[in-house]
Design goal:
single chain; 204 residues; alpha/beta; six-stranded mixed β-sheet
Length: 204
């Protein structure tokens, strides 16, 4: 033995306890791993999901101005949130070069629908003799789930819905207005990222 070192024998009882601890650790590992995966899955589900659809063949470069229209049966969360939604959408559209107008004529009509407390049926904004769905009819959802914000763009000349997008987990009040506003702005930016949609360039 070297001077200053110490060593003692290990009893059979201590060896058995160490072996049980090792087995217990191996037994808990799958459950800990499963818990981590479930937590990751829950986080993914809780994230904002954005989907959109548009009328095939539409020349979006012809649109420069827009005005707001009210969608039938749309229930606004409250006056403050309604204004926050409109302001968030206006800011993104302005950054894309679109101009808001309050006059009678506009290149586009814009409306939004949402659901906070319960699922609601999606409704179209009707124009005069009726709205023509064209190629978007079969791809348009009829239900707006809780916390979802949907934005619709209409062509008043052709009387067609030309673009529609929606973002889930956007309007879920947390009691923190600043946090809710940040989530709304983030959702609107993601929602309108693909408006107008990229036009395919023709080539040889």
């Amino acid at each position: 033995m070297h001077e200053g070192s110490s060593f003692r024998g290990v009893s059979l009882h201590e060896l058995e306890e160490a072996e049980m601890d090792a087995k217990l650790g191996r037994g808990l590992f799958p459950f800990l791993l499963l818990g981590a995966l479930l937590l990751a899955s829950a986080t993914t589900v809780a994230g904002q999901q954005v989907t959109y659809n548009f009328m095939p063949g539409t020349n979006f470069s012809q649109y420069h101005t827009y005005k707001w229209v009210q969608i039938p049966s749309n229930v606004h969360p409250n006056q403050i949130v309604n204004q926050e939604i409109i302001e968030a959408i206006n800011n993104v559209l302005a950054s894309k070069g679109f101009t808001l107008t309050t006059g009678e004529k506009a290149d586009l009509y814009v409306g939004y629908q949402c659901s906070v407390d319960q699922e609601r049926q999606w409704n179209a904004w009707g124009m005069g003799g009726g709205l023509r769905w064209g190629g978007m009819g079969s791809a348009t959802s009829s239900t707006i789930t809780n916390g979802t914000l949907a934005v619709d763009f209409y062509d008043p000349t052709s009387q067609q819905l030309i673009w529609r997008g929606q973002a889930t987990n956007t309007l879920n009040p947390s009691g923190n207005q600043e946090k809710d506003m940040q989530r709304l702005n983030k959702a609107v930016q993601k929602l309108l990222k693909n408006f107008p949609p990229q036009q395919k360039k023709s080539g040889w």
